[in-house]
Amino acid sequence: MFRHEPAQTGHMNRSLRSQLLRRLFPLLSAMFVLSGVAATLGAWRHAQTIYDHELIDGTKALAQQVGQIGGTTSLDLPEAARQILQWDAEDVHWYQVRGENSGLIAGAADVPARPESGVESLRGALIYDGLIAGEKVRVVLVNVDLEIVGERVEVRVAETLRKRTWLIAESLSGVLLPQLAINAITVLVIGYSLRKMLIPISEVALRLQSQTHQSLEPLDDRALPSEILPITQSVNALMARLKAALQAQRHFIADASHQLRTPLTALKLHADEAAGEADPVKLKVLIAEIQRAADRAVRLSNQLLSMARAEPDSGLVERRIFDLRAMLSETIEAWVPQSISEGVDLGVDASIETTPDDTLTLAGPAPVWVKGDPVLLTEAVNNLIHNAITHGGSGTRITVSIATAGEHRVKVRVDDDGPGIEPEDRIRVLERFQQASAASPERSRPATGSGLGLAIASEIARAHEGSISIEDGATGRGVCVVIELPLAELA
């Protein structure tokens, strides 16, 4: 099976999966960074709390060893205890005992003093940060009041931040590594899920590629996500319209070839016969037959073209707002000479008594605005008048009027008192190539038409969102063909 490759354009189309992952990656990265920041702050606070408490306890224990010996402030701390205080496998400790009057009493001289800012108070001690030999330290300061000599003594213990840093690193590794793994798994799961979810779409695309103009079947979209259904439903609707258009085209071609075959065959036979005829009288008769056959072929061709143009899905209807009253007046005037020669009374009547609607006067000044193709609507009215003249015969009275049909619709009525159409035939004659026998055969002419006049009028009405119907004549005889159209909405 050949696959249809998309045409190369100025940019490459990205897949839905890659686009989603590209948009998801920054979000996951931002969440990872935020979780890292939060974990760092939490680990730092946790490490500070633990080791600050330990450092405070050690400083207070050291402060209890400060006292007076022989009137002098001193630190009563054995050498073994001092080594234990300063020994640590990871951090380095310094201590300092300094009197307000005595100065440095014991310990290292470089333990940082209390700064002016950045000092915290916790459990009766002061805590702050400092530097010793270029390395950051955490310092705890405890004040000892010696009431005997009236001197205040500060006990300071400093500790490096190595254990705190390692604890923070361990905490972060315990949080961020699983988070990183979760993010990676999330991306993989989403990518895999999208791939599985897009398989039905690919299958639908393959089924769509296998469609031809002879197999425009609807796509099965039951396995597709609901977000894709509007696309497949639109495609199915498009294929249904295309299938209907192709069927109508095939039907039209078959009907046209069938209907044109008879007059064209007659035209050729009469022309062949006339070519070998020497008698002027017979030749004149043959030429008249040729003219009638040619006229019928021309009219049938024009009707078939009008039928094709009037198809609702043809896209050939040119819609514009025009005055229906003026269009009907011009159409009726064009038929006056033929109606006189045929002995038909063609006129306009604005007061048909049997009409339940408010009848409008064609010659009145107020326009009746409709939106549509005036050429096609003129063709529809021409067909109705032509049918009334052709089938009614001499002495027929034909009346054309406009009647309101509600607040937003209007009716064009072509009424005659001719032989009429049987009620059971009035639906059938609106179809293509269908003719009905007259209700009064003694007044009807031989059927010489193609059965397209009413069908064309019906197609034109439907193309203008209207309808057509056949009713009894206003005088009780004949028929009244009614085209109902929507009025135009004027701004």
Description:
The chain has 491 residues and is an alpha+beta fold. It has three domains: 199 residues, no CATH class; 82 residues, Signal transduction histidine kinase, dimerisation/phosphotransfer (DHp) domain (Helix Hairpins, Orthogonal Bundle); 167 residues, Histidine kinase-like ATPase, C-terminal domain (Heat Shock Protein 90, 2-Layer Sandwich). The longest helix is centred in the first third of the chain and has 48 residues. The protein is rod-shaped. The N terminus is likely disordered. It is built from eight helices and 16 strands. The protein has a six-stranded antiparallel sheet, covered by helices on one side. Strands 10, 11, 13, 14, 15 and 16 form a six-stranded mixed sheet that branches. Helix 1 runs antiparallel to helix 3 and helix 7 runs antiparallel to helix 8. Strand 5 and strand 6 form a beta hairpin.
Give a short summary of the structure.
The protein has 491 residues and is an alpha+beta fold. 47% of the residues lie in helices and 20% in strands.
pLDDT averaged over residues: 78
- The run of helices and strands is HEEHEEEEEEHHHEHEEEHEEHEE
User: How many helix segments?
Assistant: 8
Q: Domains counted in the coordinates: how many?
A: 3
Q: Strand count, sense and closure of the main sheet?
A: 6 strands, antiparallel
Shape: rod-shaped
| Strand segment count | 16
Structural class: alpha+beta
Strand proportion: 15-25%
Instruction: Compute the CA-based radius of gyration.
Output: 52 Å
Low-confidence stretches: 1-10, 350-357, 438-446
Helix percentage range: 40-55%
Question: How far do the termini sit from each other?
Answer: 56 Å
Give me the side-by-side strand order of the main sheet.
Answer: 4-3-8-7-6-5
